[in-house]
Sequence to fold (340 residues):
Amino acid sequence: MTTQNSTRDWGWLVAIVLPLIGILPTFAGGIMAAADAPLHTHRIYAMGTLLSEGQLYPRWVPWFHLGYGYPIFNFYTPGVFYVGGLLTLAGFSAVTAFHLVAAAAWIFGSLGTYRLARTFLPGSAAIIAAALWSYAPSRLFEVWTQGSLPQIACAAFVPWVFLTVVKGAYAPSPRKAVWIALAIAGLVFTHQPVTFITALFVAPFTVIVILWASRREWRTLLRRALCVYGGVALAAGLAMIFLLPLALELRLVEAVNGRDDVVAYLTSNFLLPQEVFAFPMPNDLTDIRVEYPMSLGLIGSVLFVLGIGAMLRRRLYVVAALLAVAMGFTIFMLLEPSLP
Fold:
């Protein structure tokens, strides 16, 4: 880990500015032409309306579901809508609130990626990492095609979760545990699928980083573990206002019983091994339903190899090994054998 004082590291300003090229078009006026943008804008408006009526934590939207009402915020994470609702109380329209939250999430994720990379790499490499996060195809897809405000917000919390876990494991303290809790709670309150996928990586990572940080002084193992897992427990407590109703009422949701075509649909989205690093074909824009490439791509594989090579040259063997294992697990999750 680098020991440079972050207060003298001005690269974080670059990380803040990096997403601006992608963000500025969102303020062109009106709801962006993305699949879920109108839906999430409506939910921001609903949250703002209920907050203005004095509900501190709205759950039931009485005009949803054809006017019958629906407890949407018991099942769909309310984090971005709560922030957007507060912005509407401050005088912004729901559309502008949508754009502001998307812009803030984009910057927040870029900054988190920079700070995480800066923990192990020089400033120039950390800036490249922030740029790659900011303009990864998934970022552009989340905003401009899918319009999934919760997804980009949750993705922005992912680097902060890893950063706070590393900081807590290496320099445990009650304050570090609180930061871990806030980062993980941010995940839970923004998007469930991204939270689940992140947990598959974070769970083993916490064990590895605690053991590695304690390798020269094993008597510190318990203190480091208490900091990290105390933060995880605190995050669960903070998120219980959402998790408890979700767990108790999930049986009442018909979708929880599954559908006959779910497995077939999931299977159709897996890649063949030879497709994982294939160069994606150009989109057929004349097709009514445009299918976007899901492979990691040739460029992604080249960048991964170059990054691993650079870390090996810097003798960051453990970091390189962890990234290689993470990449292997990611590839496994793209293939049909991971279905169970």
Remarks:
- The first helix runs from residue 11 to 17.
- The chain has a mean pLDDT of 88.
